[in-house]
Amino acid sequence: MIVVAGESLIDLVPDGAPGPLAPLLPRPGGGPYNTAVALGRLGADVAFCSRVSTDAFGEALMARLAGAGVATGLVQRGPEPTTLAVAAVGPDGSARYGFYVEGTADRFFELPERLPEGVRAVAFGTCSLALEPGASAYEALLRRSAREGLLTLLDPNVRPGLIPDAEAYRERFAGWLPDVSLLKLSEEDARWLGGSPAGWLRAGPAAVVLTRGGAGLTVFTGEHEVSVPGVRVPVVDTIGAGDTVNAALLHGLAGRAPGALDRADWRELLAFAARAAAVTCTRAGAEPPYARELADGLADG
């Protein structure tokens, strides 16, 4: 089983009309949440670990998890409201966000006593590692998972507007790396965080995957540097594309340690992730592909 730990929220996405007062459509979102849904759609045995509101948005979020086959036994529930993220989509499909997070459910996440038997990997990232007091509980789960020998994936998916002290966050990020097996981040994240793949590898991860938008993906390990191109598709928006990459990497590893893959293995895995992300980019909001879509070659556009 793969456990994805982190926030769920509602993305408020413009319906395509021009101007700052365009109608907004509510769509389920949150980086970890999207990763869990993507894993479920790919056919993985996956569970979501978070705190979700009992409000109407929270019920919709839970229903979508169930529809994707995601186990919810690790989900804590509470009366606090659901986090809202207002998305502004640029001409190239990229998205910028404004967040409404005060007093929302995910911030009150508590460290679970234990994870189920059979868990092989745990994924972390995005808002959940930036917003206290929940951030410390997620961090504790990351460190405990690493001690227990589980594969850990970290996608910082940095949202600068949620980080009051950038340098303190960068120091905290560096402190996570000894407990991370696979670090995945975008070029934008890398520029904001500073550092380099070589430096991050020395700190702990066995592999660093860098996403480069339409240009593709690159992995860095102690032995290899492998790149694959992006898949050319008509882009509606890029919401959820990076989360789909997380899911594809975890699913494609199939229990293998990142350090055990050779160049050919990485090329195959990155190409799979690129195809999956491309499908997501052809649809509004975070709508990752189902396994059958990738098998049918629909990601080739």
Describe this protein's structure:
- It is a single chain.
- With 301 residues, the protein is of the alpha/beta class.
- The protein contains nine helices and 13 strands.
- The chain is 33% helix and 23% strand.
- Helix 1 crosses helix 7 and helix 7 runs antiparallel to helix 8 (263-281).
- The longest helix has 19 residues, at 263-281.
- The model is unreliable at 297-301 (pLDDT under 50).
Name the strands of the widest sheet in spatial order. 5-4-1-8-9-10-11-12-13
Termini, distance in Å? 31 Å
Helix content: 25-40%
As a percent range, the share of strand residues is 15-25%
Task: Summarize the biggest pleated sheet.
Answer: 9 strands, mixed
Radius of gyration: 18 Å
- The helix-and-strand class reads alpha/beta
Secondary-structure element order, N to C = EEEHEHEEEEHEHEHHEEEHHH
The number of E-state strands comes to: 13
Summarize the structure.
The chain has 301 residues and is α/β, with parallel strands linked by helices.
Which tags fit this structure?
301 residues; 9-stranded mixed β-sheet; 9 helices; disordered C terminus; alpha/beta; 4-stranded mixed β-sheet
What is the topological layout?
Layout: E1 2-5, E2 9-14, E3 24-29, H1 31-42, E4 46-53, H2 56-67, E5 75-78, E6 84-89, E7 95-100, E8 121-125, H3 134-147, E9 151-155, H4 166-176, E10 182-186, H5 187-193, H6 197-203, E11 207-211, E12 217-221, E13 225-228, H7 241-253, H8 263-281, H9 291-295
Parallel strand pairs: 1-4, 1-8, 2-6, 4-5, 8-9, 9-10, 10-11
Antiparallel strand pairs: 2-3, 6-7, 11-12, 12-13
